[in-house]
Design brief:
- The structure is a single chain.
- The chain is of the alpha+beta class.
- Helix content is about 25%, strand content about 45%.
- The protein contains three helices and eight strands.
- Strand 3 and strand 4 form a beta hairpin.
- The radius of gyration is 14 Å and the shape is globular.
- The two termini are about 15 Å apart.
- The relative contact order is 0.20.
- It binds zinc ion.
- Zinc ion (ZN) binds next to strand 1 and strand 5.
């Protein structure tokens, strides 16, 4: 693992949340991006060496919509940068961690991403990401 790449926060209303976080960071998001295959729109703020990713569902069956329905807004996942996502997936799966889906997919911010289920990660949805 290289570093904590970003923290994902599930929000109901991205435009409203962006305004709030713009005040906190005294800077606008450096990127707003729709990720069709994940059913989300995201915005990114730089915070020192890491980032905050705000996530809004853009369809009712999006994982973010389901998360907010169950648990409300809040921290959704932690993302760690890796050099070789396929190698890390193999290593983690061999150790018994539960991968969601079948391997890396295209995520936001020009990354290949994968997620490990919270039930094998002490309750925290865990993303690995690799620069493309
Ligand atoms: Zn993320």
């Amino acid at each position: 693992m290289l570093e904590l790449e970003h923290i994902g926060i599930a929000v109901k209303d991205l435009a409203e949340a962006n305004k709030r976080y713009e005040v906190l960071f005294n800077a606008p998001p450096y990127k707003i991006e729709k990720v069709e295959n994940e059913g989300v729109t995201t915005s990114f703020f730089k915070v020192g060496r890491t980032k905050i990713e705000l996530l809004e569902a853009n369809k009712p069956d999006s994982p973010i919509a389901k998360f907010i329905e169950k648990r409300g807004e809040g921290i959704h996942h932690l993302a760690y940068a890796v050099n070789d996502i396929n190698l890390e997936i193999k290593r983690m799966v061999d150790e018994g961690f539960e991968l969601i889906g079948n391997g890396p997919q295209k995520g936001a911010d020009n990354k290949l991403v994968c997620f490990f289920h919270p039930k094998t990660m002490n309750g925290v949805l865990t993303e690995l990401c690799q620069n493309q």
